[in-house]
Structure formats: structure tokens, C-alpha cells
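G., the chain you wanted modeled:
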Amino acid sequence: MRGRPRRRLHALIAAVAAIAAVLVPTASSAAAAPHHRGSPAPRTPVMDGHRLQQARARLAHGDPALSKAVKSLTAQADSWLGQGPWTVTDKPKPAPGGDVHDYLSQAPYWWPSQPKTADNPWGCPYVQRDGVRNPEVDTGTDRPDIGKVFNSTTTLSLAWYYTGKKVYAEQAAKILRTWFVDPATRMNPNLNHGQFIPCKYDGRAIGIIDFSQQYTSVLDALAILDTGAPGWSKNDRAGMSSWNMSFLDWLVDSDFGKQESAAANNHGTFADMQIAGLALATGNKDLARTKVLDARAKLIDPQIAADGSQPQELARTRSWHYSTFDLVAYTRLAAIGKQVGVNLWAYQGPQGQSLFKAVDYLLPAATGEAAWPHPELEFYRYAASDIVHAAADAGDAKAKAAVPKLQAPPAGDMWALRPAAEQLDSIAG
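Predicted structure as C-alpha cells:
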């Protein structure tokens, strides 16, 4: 009889331990996410911050699919730890204006037509070869480095958010601080010398896409770091806010900014998406909302046909790339719209144009059920993965049915960790 109370005591202790195991995280889970407890959802302008918060909670409870995705994410983040930081001030020659702080890039599809000589060192005049990238654009300009800044800071901030490892946040902070904040190395908040063409233009409005195709991902990274990342100070936050407001002013007011926003293809879509994202990130919700509302008649109506095709993009030698690329901008613009009370997915144009139709047009090729029937120099089926995910999440039944048939990108499907479309088939070198 003496053993029975003791067994009851042991059973009670075991029950309490079982309850504690549920209520109190293990040492390993606590170490993985020390910054998570009580922290608010990131105020990300494109990605849904609450979805990020929910994904982190699921990860803390051992979600196997998310755990696998985080392994891929941290592998990418680890590769950035020994790189950078980068700065516009270290290129061999400054931009044509002479200011070492000005960003410089070269038009990727323009090539010399004459032999390079002492009298004609560039081999001018340059001629266009659409879709064929000139390798010289990756030497002597800032384009390769800004791509590294965008990709590294996005990956590192997410890796910190999901693991709590401060080394990721500290590296992201150092890279951002060097490129955008530190007076000695910061970039001027303009793109006056983007995509110059030797012997022809010192810069072009079209160069804005160097930033518009990815900079809103950096805005999301900033919002993630703002939730309390180690190494990211109030001064850093203030410096980035000031830079973003100045850059937004330049995009809205400059001749180049106005020209790019008026473009009738993916350039116009990305330009307006970038403005909307910057506006939301800097507190100008009215401008963000206006840009999303204007996208209906200004962008969707003329750019998307009744069958869902995008005629301006189909005319390119890289028609699959540019069709998926343009929809990256549209789906991100729709995500911004959700945060300012506009459902861009629900819009239908005079001929029935819609974002759902545009995504559905790509589904046969995206799932591998049919060949892409338009010109494409280098077809990558996985390029459509994120935009199909976005349409499925927005309620497109066809897209939802297609998700299991998608080809995963080389680095794995990251949608559950960063639910916002990215350009997955980069042709930036």
C-alpha cells in the first residue's frame, strides 16, 4: 500500500512535466528564437507581416515543411556572412557626373558594333540585341554589387527572423549601413546614371528598373530588422528612413521617374509598384493607395489582353521571362493594395482583363502540361512558381490546383517563409 501514494506522486510529477513541456519551450527551441516572445508582427509593406509571425510560430512548434525551408534559407544566409559590405564609391571610375556617390549601371542588351581602338575605346556606336546580355555591363559599374546588397539583406533578415541568430541581423545591418547610411560610402538617392549606353546616353529612365525589380524586398527586410534586430540601431533606422523618403521624392518628381512610370510594359508596372511600396513604408498611405487604384485603368487595362496574355511582354525574345517578371510586379502591387484596402485581384477590365487571367494564361507551361508557345531564349519553368502561389492564395482555384505541379526553384520553394513573389529566373548575371 505504501507504493501506491508514491506511484501517484510520480504520476503527478510526470503530468506536470508533460504540461510544462507544452507550455515552456525546450532549450533548443528557445535558443532558436530568443527574440520572438511578445515581438510585434513586422510592418512589412509587401509581405504580410502576420503571416511571417504565424510561420515563425509554426516553425517553433516543429513544422517539418517549414523546418526544411529554413535549412535552405540559412544555407543561403550563411553564404553571405563572409561577403561585403559593398559601396558605390569603390567602382573604378565615377558615374558621368563625377560624383563617386552616384549609382552607375550599363544597359545590358546593348553591344559595341565596331572594333575597340585607341580612338574608339568603347567600339561605338552601340546596337541593341534584345535579351542577349553583354558581359561588360558587370565590370566597372555598381549593378553587380547592388544585386548582392538586395539579395543578401533580404535573405539575412529573414534568416535572423526565423532563427534568432544575431550574426545574420548584424551582417544585414552592416551591408545596409554601408550602402545607404554611412556618409563616406552611401549612395545618393537617385538613379540619374542607370543603364547608360556608351557614346549615347549618360543615363536613362529605364535604369530605374535596376532598383524597382527588387528594392521593395529590401523595404520588407528593413521592417523585419525594425522588430528588434541586434546591430540595427535607431540611427540606422533613421538614416534608412531619410534615404527612402528622398528616393521616393526623386522617383515621383524627376523626369526619369515620370518617364519610367509612364512606360507601357513591365517597366511601368515595376515603377508604380516601387513607388507604392516606398510610400507605404514611409507612412504615405494615400499615395500608396492611389498607385494601386491607378493600376487598374493605367496598367491592367492596356497591358493584359482579354485572354490573359501580356502582348508587350510576348513581343520580347524572352517572352516567358518577361511575362512572369511583369506579374511579379503585379502580385506585389496587389499585396501592397491589400494593406491599403484595395483588392487588385478582384478587378476586371472592360474586356475581362484581370490578374487571375494573366496567371492562368501561364499555367499550362508552369505545370509542364504544355510547351510555352512564344519565343524564349532560355525557358525556366520554375520562374512562374511564386506568382502561381500568389494567385492561389488570392483565391484562384486553377492556380491552387496547379501548385502541386510547380517546379521548385533551384534554392527551394521559399513561399511559406516569404509570401511575396520574387523574380526566380534572374538574368542579371
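Strands lie at 110-112, 126-128.

Shout if anything looks off.
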